Please model this.
Amino acid sequence: MRPADRTPALVSRLPQVGTTIFTVMSALATEHQAVNLGQGFPDFACDPRLLDAVDAAMRAGHNQYPPMPGVPALRQAMADKVRALYGLEIDANTEITVTAGATQAILTAILAVVHPGDEVIVLEPCYDSYVPNIELAGGVVVRVPLTPGTFRPNFDAISAAITPRTRAILINSPHNPSGMVWSEAEMRRLEEILAPTDVLLISDEVYEHMVFDGQQHQSAARYPGLAGRAFIVSSFGKTYHVTGWKIGTVVAPAPLTAEFRKVHQFNVFTVNTPMQHALAAYMADPAPYLQLSDFYAAKRDRFRAGLAKTRFRLLPSQGTYFQCVDISTLAVPERDLPEADFCQWLTREIGVAAIPLSAFYGDGFDQKVVRFCFAKKDETLDEGIRRLARL
Model:
């Protein structure tokens, strides 16, 4: 029997959403055998000890449903880490939840607290899941641009955007796509602005262990006025080079966690059991995450040194594993193309994939800036630089 010729009519929940730029550029990179410096994932293996820990967990019988909030040992390991690094005491039973990656964590937090008509502030450029998440909850997206060029927060604009209908604000540090890192003064300014309000904070901190040049990650957990109103999102995938595992955590005060878990139990319920046990065991040694900044700083410096020999203008990269460049100084006519078209040309003709920064703005704001990912093997970076040297 063939399906009916006429599909029932429907109204899309996300009518403006198509295939993401990351999928488009990765497919184009594969088609043209380009060096993929676009999508943000490592092309190198994780620590073999972590794989051994997964194997041990599976063989120990940890293959059935775990507790809905997450394996207790992993929640306790994360609570211990947050206390040691950021000075925040959290109850592993009532204030931390293991999630199916950071993207699910952010969606769940938004669905838990945003009601139809509530306003949610996003700082652009921003990761592409934020706005659709808010729209799925029936919220109203309020876009506040970060300062072009530096991508630092504009607190006058943030203050002006807060209204009696503001339910939450989303921040991200270290920042994807720009690599900007919020300072202590900026976090205290946000704490001051939010103090007289009931505005909640969703703090996307998935690159928390990739902060360079002696800086310190300014987690919302460090600031009582922020921690008391925040969902703080972390990612094991980013930290341990296992993005495909899709495991993260959300730290939040008990009342917020209770609401978060109401949604969590119905959109994923639980998260991969043996991986949770493996991560709990692996976290007994803090060295892998404590050394991560040095590891990625070396890759950043190698990549920047190579790019410095080209006509790209390098923007600062204070954190994450991303490097943004200004393309307006290139000596090729394609520099005048829109960023998205330039990235497609770069992939087809030069053999290197990048991501246009305009993809992170709702209005497609084009400032002649593209983003490269340097979470790659040294030989991958070197080959990418060799090809880019043609420019």
Remarks:
- The chain has two domains: 21-46+290-388, 48-285.
- The chain has a mean pLDDT of 96.
- The domain at 21-46+290-388 is CATH 3.90.1150.10 (Aspartate Aminotransferase, domain 1).
